[in-house]
Amino acid sequence: MTDLTKLTIAQTLSGLKNKDFSAVELTNAYLKNMQNKRELNAYVLETPEIALKAAKIADKHYQTGTNHALEGIPVGIKDLFCTKSIRSTACSHILDDFVPCYESTVTQNLLNAGAVFLGKLNMDEFAMGGSNETSFYGPVINPWSKDEPLVAGGSSGGSAAAVAADMCAAATGTDTGGSIRQPAAFCGIVGIKPTYGRCSRWGIMAFASSLDQAGPMTKDVTDAALMLEVMAGYDQKDSTSTNIEVPHFAKVLGQDIKGLKVGIPREYRPEGLNKEISSLWDKAADILKARGAEIVEISLPHTKYALPVYYIIAPAEASSNLARYDGIRYGLRVNGEKLDDLYINTRTEGFGPEVKRRIMIGTYVLSAGYFDAYYLKAQKVRRLIKNDFEEAFKKCDVILTPTSPVSAFKIGDESMKQNPINMYLNDVFTVSVNLAGLPALSLPVGLDHNGLPLGFQLIGKAFDEETIFKAAYGLEQDVGFVRK
Amino acid sequence: MAIDNNMVKQVAFLARLKIEDSKLESTKEEFNKILNWVEQLSEVDTSNVEPLVSVHEGFVKARADEVTDGHIKDEILKNAPMQEFGYFAVPKVVE
Question: From CA A278, how far away is CA A293, in angstroms rounded?
Answer without folding.
Answer: 19
